[in-house]
Amino acid sequence: MNLGTPWPAGAVRHDDGEVSFAGVRVGALAAQHGTPAYVLDEADLRARARRYREAFEEAFAEIGTSVEVFYAGKAFLSVAVARWVHEEGLRVDTATAGELAVALRAGVPGAAIGLHGNNKSDAEIRTALEAGVGRIIVDSLVEVDRVAALAAEAGVVAPVMVRVTTGVHAGGHEHISTAHEDQKFGLSLAGEDSPALRALRAVVARPELRLVGIHSHIGSQILDPHAYELAAERVLALRARLHAEAGVLVEEVDLGGGFGVAYLPGEAELDATEVARAQARTVAAVCERLATPVPRVSIEPGRAVVGPTTATLYTVGTVKPVELEDGRVRTYVSVDGGMSDNLRPALYGAAYHAEIVSRRSTAEPVLARVVGKHCESGDIVVHECELPGDVRAGDLLAVAVTGAYGRSMASNYNLVPRPPVVAVREGTSRVLVRRETLEDLLALDEG
Ligand SMILES: Cc1ncc(COP(=O)(O)O)c(C=O)c1O
């Protein structure tokens, strides 16, 4: 029986109660790769990448323009994943020297890579220019001059986009809302002579820079397909303003990422076709109203491509019933990982779904909390879920939808080595990122 949402597409529970991911049983995965481990369904990831590309290409072709989909590597990036998304026709959005290095190692051409970041170092910008990246997204006025100077030094013309702050408040949590005024990203649109307009003029005036477009990313884990409309309107109005003022028509607008996914059973993720059509309708209507030609469009999904494709496999170590003040009993289930492999519950209070995947149980479910092994009472993996009352040490427990901002935000808190990322496909498994060892950690220690 297929497990369904929110599990990876190839997750199945067999008659004997054991679960397999893309044909690989969890017992075999644990025996071969150990736990904790991130288990990534390759076919699901490729299908999600294709779905976003096809939905947006179709919707924007209908309004007479083209679209580029950039996979946001910050969600999770490895050489194989960069190669897969590129093979599926996506480009790659990077935000640091590390992400850029992985994308280049995967053979993604520089022209298919974008470099983001609100505080890029000169070294990162130089590497990006050397690699011939397709766009550098500038995030401040000083950065316009910095990129121009480094482009002159390299003897190249740098393709840049200007990131603007549209003033739209969106996103699943304050920390992942990135377009309201009081936050670090982008240039404000506020005022007659806005910082965004000044940056665009500054780019146009620099021969070392080629203005590729205007960029906006409003936030993450967005579930309302209409959340993007206001941001698109404001970006297109800015484009029309620059055109009227300086005769420069910006070729492209990047409407960012942030497409939400389902984390819990019964939840619905943002539908790619629905949001693509909503965005295309808005772009067409606003351009008609402003009497400007429709631009090329790009988007940057991360979570929606990789998030649901991955589950984290843990081993239960300790089970402890705790009586609460109201007399209820909460069963604390400790696993062999924790906030070091999934920071989102602690950082954002994010909700996750967990199940025992190594066997079927007929025991009455209990109110449970899945916690980690770290020295922190906030070290919670799943705040609240139901688990079988006979949950016990040695059980394999999986947590769904850990593909995005899981491994990429992992740490070595308490000097716990980071888990491997294991890809599964058609009954086989292979390591994409190997497990860190204590030797790896000690190798960093100069003694
Ligand atoms: C500029 C930019 N683009 C794209 C993304 C990807 O967002 P998501 O993974 O929610 O699609 C982010 C996430 O923080 C971002 O900052």
Shape: globular
* Number of helices in the DSSP assignment: 12
**Uncertain ranges:** none
| CATH architectural group of the largest domain | Alpha-Beta Barrel
Short description:
The chain is α/β, with parallel strands linked by helices and 447 residues long. It is 30% helix and 25% strand.
Characterize the structure shown.
Helices cover 30% and strands 25% of the residues. It has 447 residues and is an alpha/beta fold. The protein has 2 domains: 11-34 and 308-443, Lyase, Ornithine Decarboxylase, Chain A, domain 1 (Beta Barrel), CATH 2.40.37; 43-305, Alanine racemase (TIM Barrel, Alpha-Beta Barrel), CATH 3.20.20. The strands form 3 sheets. Strands 4, 14, 15, 16, 17, 18, 19, 20 and 21 form a 9-stranded mixed β-sheet that branches. Helix 6 runs parallel beside helix 7 and helix 8 runs parallel beside helix 9. The N and C termini lie far apart (53 Å).
Question: What is the fold's blueprint, element by element?
Answer:
Elements: E1 11-13, E2 19-21, E3 24-25, H1 26-33, E4 37-41, H2 42-61, E5 67-72, H3 79-87, E6 91-94, H4 97-105, E7 113-115, H5 122-131, E8 135-138, H6 141-154, E9 158-165, E10 187-188, H7 195-205, E11 209-215, H8 227-246, E12 252-254, H9 272-290, E13 296-299, H10 303-306, E14 310-323, E15 329-335, H11 344-348, E16 354-356, E17 365-371, E18 380-388, E19 396-400, E20 421-425, E21 428-433, H12 438-443
Parallel strand pairs: 4-20, 5-6, 5-13, 6-7, 7-8, 8-9, 9-10, 9-11, 11-12, 12-13, 15-17
Antiparallel strand pairs: 1-2, 2-3, 4-14, 14-15, 14-19, 16-19, 17-18, 20-21
The structure holds pyridoxal-5'-phosphate.
